[in-house]
Amino acid sequence: MRCYLRIMVIILSCLAGFFAAAADQTAAGPTKTIPVLTISGAIGPAVGDYVIREIQLANQQPHMPAILLTIDTPGGLNSALREINQHILASDIPVICLVYPRGARAASAGTYILYACHIAAMSPATTLGAATPVRMGGMPGGDEKKDDNAQKTPDAMEKKILNDSIAYIRSLAQLRGRNVEWAEKAVREAATLSSEEALELNVIDELAATPEALVQAIDGRVIQLNQQPYTLDLSGAVQLPRQPDWRSRFLATITNPNIAYILMMIGIYGLLLEFYSPGLGISGVIGTISLLIALYAFHLLPVNYAGMGLILLAVALLVAESLVPSFGILGGGGVVAMILGSVFLIDSDLPELQISLNLIYAIALASAGMVIFVVRRLLSLRRKPAVSGCESMIGYQTIIDDDDDEAGQGFVLIGGERWAARCEHETPLHKGDHVTVCAVEGLTVLVRKVSESKQNDGFTDR
User: Fold this and answer.
1) Which stretches does DSSP call E strand in 101-214?
2) Scanning 24, 140, 151, 396, which has its CA 20 to 30 A from the CA of 365?
3) Rounded to two decimals, what is the model's pTM?
4) Residue 61 shares a structural domain with residue 117
């Protein structure tokens, strides 16, 4: 009992200390926190999901005076960029953007995000710009007119994309009171700036080496938030790094073009294997799950449907090769269609959003190996003698079981069945003659006598 009481006293003392500490913290007032988000690498669906979810969560939490976003990106998808900027513009909490660390860049889509944020800052030795839409140089079609300097005239679609991007970044620059002329130049001419030049030209608001230095530099500054003056109160705020959750990490994994491509191949070949050899369904289940995940990933990625069509054609040709003995013609066409479709599958000029050529070659070699295996298997099966039907009796060696002296014919036993036999040279057959079946005509087999030198003692089989 005394031991029990001592334990209870210890537990109650710990609880009292915990509640006392909580009471002191409440009396001292809530702690201001600044969530720190990080964009590193290409801006895709996973990055967009991560940034949007964190902005929404921050707007639902009290005592958050600002959101800090650090950027180091070569660019990304226009769809992900627009969604991020929409939530930044609609945020009730100021979003502070910093190109960080030293040597980082806010190229292409990163320039648009920097212009959209309430405070734009850069670390020393960083750059921004080159905001021309990446499809301007790689869009197929159009009437290209070349002059002596090999310059091309953009077609109507390219002009639409360019003018839309210019209008978009100009609207962001006007909203935040930044350099509109240079914003248009960054899109039209792919212009770039260093951090010092950007500050001098009023492209950014502050130059800071670290996030902590930036927070101290802008504390007390008045900005426009939802068209109303807003004073930044960042003194004593604690910076809280926010890492992507499991959902964002999962999206980042499956939206990697290489992973999505591998999942699609697993799904296709898994279903084919299940159709060829139905069994426990393991390959069918794995193939179905992989294919559905791949389709969801491709829904988020810029997919070229011509490339997808070529891949489906390749699968159809590979299946046909295993069903129709084309001796490699269909299979070879399938391998070529597989390579071309894989190259054209992702419609983006960013290396981070393209499928690795080494992976494409590996899948193509595996498919070619399957075609070679199927062709060799078909050729070996064609060389084997038939094992059922009338064709299986060709070459069968047996003995005349009975004869018909008047007609010169006889009877043989083949596989337990009694067949009428007739010599192919119209030679009379006699009981006990060793013969080989040459052909089958209705219910009569044509046989050929075997010379004594070639007879096998006691044989009745092949």
Assistant:
1) 105-107, 119-122, 127-129, 192-194, 206-207
2) 140
3) 0.67
4) yes
